[in-house]
Amino acid sequence: MNSAAASGTCAVFVLSALGFQARAAPPVADFGQLPAVENVELSPSGDRIAYIAVEGAERKLVVKQAGGPQLFAIGTGVTKPRAIDWLNNDTLVIETSNTVMLNAAASVSQHEFFQSTIIDVKTSKVVRVFGGQALILHATFGYFGHAVEHGHTWAYFGGLTLTGSGEGTVDFDHNAGSATHSHTDLYKVDVDTGHSEMVSGGTERLGTQWVVDAAGVIAATAQYDQSNGRWRLRAGGPGGGLVTEADDPAGDIGLEGQGRTPGSVVVNRPGGRNGDFSLIEYRGRVGDPGAPLFGDADIAVELRDPTTGLLIGGVTNSDEPQTILFDAALQAKFDKAARAFKGEKVALVSATADLDRMIVKTEGPGDSGTYFLIDIPARRAEAVAWAYPTILQDAVGPIGVVAYKAADGLEMQGVLTLPPGREAKRLPLVVMSHGGPEARDYVRFDWWAQAFASRGYAVFQPNFRGSNGFGKAFRDAGFGEWGRKMQTDVSDGVVELARQGVIDPKRVCIVGASYGGYVALAGVTVQQGLYRCAVSVGGISDPASMLIWESENAGQRSATMRYWHRYMGAAKSGDATLNAISPRGLVDRIDAPVLLVFGKDDTVVPNQQSTSFADALRHAGKAVEVLQLPGEDHWLSNGATRVQMLEASVAFVEKNNPRDATTK
Q1: Domains of the chain by range and CATH?
Q2: What is the pLDDT of residues 240-269, one digit of tens each?
């Protein structure tokens, strides 16, 4: 592991030795509350700030004058806000989602559908995209940019065109038509009236994405053939000349948007020196070879000109996020502003085209996330919002990196959060594995980890092989290792923490959500003798039945199935090798009590993965507790049920692995 990772380990123990004059820890519920603010966006002029605010049990879209009073607020109701974008200085679009029951008799009956709403903040006029259209499903399938034509603003969305007659297929509201296909088309929507016009058609065989420039011209179209995994980029519309193509079995390649100049587009695909994923810019010409934009840097957030939509830079996917801007003058302006926040990690969130005004988010020792408005001409920085305003500095546990080697010698790292004010010596441990599995954890404030740390536990979040952010080779090393080396990578990290004397290896519980929930269940079935308890939130208990469910949902010949097969190491959905990594199939071997939590509206991992495992545990006479969260989805999007999950998981760990218990 590199020296930066190693120094991160040292930093953990320096911080823990300093400690704090700690007050009583905040209630567990304070960590589980939804962030007080999310999706903070500055208007193109820099005069207004829009964000999602949580007020009690309600979420609102709020617009305020930069440095001034609130101008506008509207509740989002039962829908869940996902993103907001300014279309011009007076108009923005908010994307929300809702869990919809399509057909109770079907094997896959629930789906998460998205809607987009256009709001004029001056007049408070609200236009729901496709809401007035009888023959377009009242849901949106992607936002592809906005344009000004003859002084008028249009926004571009994917829509599902309906045909025939009868009831619509989604209960957002009434539709006059019926869906006889599953592909989407590209529509332009008048931001003032909601009137929509189809501008490009999709096809049933090919999944389609578009890039629309600031003049309303389709710059490029990406087409993906689910049946054979072939991806193609075409100049202009779907019938345009072939720019480039590639085999993409699992649907990894993505068309991201405009490039740095009009007519160019950016694609996220393997293209770095080591074959790593990179942002590649294509100039929209047939056969264009493309050019990497950020060298070997892995970009997590793309930064765009708020008026033109052109790419101006990005923020790296790393523990120490770096903001990279193509224009040297803009880079110098940002760097100077960032230096004012000494000891903090500073990431650019939103800005005017000239960066004279910008929103940045800071995180660091004792900082659970703060948004600042920086006004360069006025030489002023103002805190505008706090993600967790009730969690103050002395309640935030120190965070650092632990570098270690897996049993086969592969170098990796994990994130370690320590309890505030306690010595990093023989602590009880909570292992918390991320979902995905193609995801990663960072040296940043994590509400679930910090909740456990506030109760006196060290929390270890391993970035096992198969995680992203560490290069393609590391990601690919996870293929076929689901429940195998991906599992032992986790426990190898625990061994390293015990070797360093940081934790007591006899006082360890394991928790996780989604794939992390599988890791927790496998930790007490596929593995034994390691953990005193396990908590699975929306986790997978039986890979074989999960694959059957996925095939019914996505189709056997789909990118989704190819993705799961390569991670699980399964040649087909009924592959007998999956029996060896199935917690449900190995239920008789379980050696610790289990808490199963799941959202009733989970559309990613079916409830049966938890309920059938609970039944199997009871039949085997094993200890199990079950918590069903009504109205909750896979992502714990609702505040009340997120708190309920957190309080239950902390209480379960405290009961089965007391903080101050001693072992010999």
Answers
A1: 3-27+391-538+582-656 (3.40.50.1820), 78-202 (no CATH)
A2: 999 999 999 988 999 999 999 999 999 998
